[in-house]
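Sequence in, structure out. Go.
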Amino acid sequence: MSTDDLGSVSGQGGVYLSGDITINESGGPLNVDGPSYWQATCDSSTTDSRCGARIAVNTGASGTGWFVLDNIRGRFSFEGLTLRTRHIDSGFDGDGALFNADVLEFGLPNGVDYENVSFTVANANSARPTDSGYQQTDIMTMEINGPVKLEGNLLVFPTGNP
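Output:
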């Protein structure tokens, strides 16, 4: 396509994503009072602790408080997650006109399908179960199966000086 022809084309930028993510379908690391070893089965019927993936976020200024999503396992699939920029110059009870800038917009997927998904919400005194003196308090464990319909957008507003 020539430069002149391309100059007459208009459109919108953005990304439309679909995906399928499986975590620890065929096993994963398991830490039990000693060195790590490979747990052969990490499906939702497994009662072994710390069989799935782990996300730990430090919440304490001294590095001692950790919010944990532990034992994450199962299959997540989605279709229709969008990512684009959007100009806001109106709405938001008049604040849009004052803002008058671009934001990043995440459009939630039309639906998410969960298959044997489970995770534990906990807090801990360190990030890794293998750390000396490690202690974790499990708050609740979630198990999810089936489809979920999502609607709406997440807007990310830039901050700071240009």
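Check: The radius of gyration is 22 Å. The mean pLDDT is 80.
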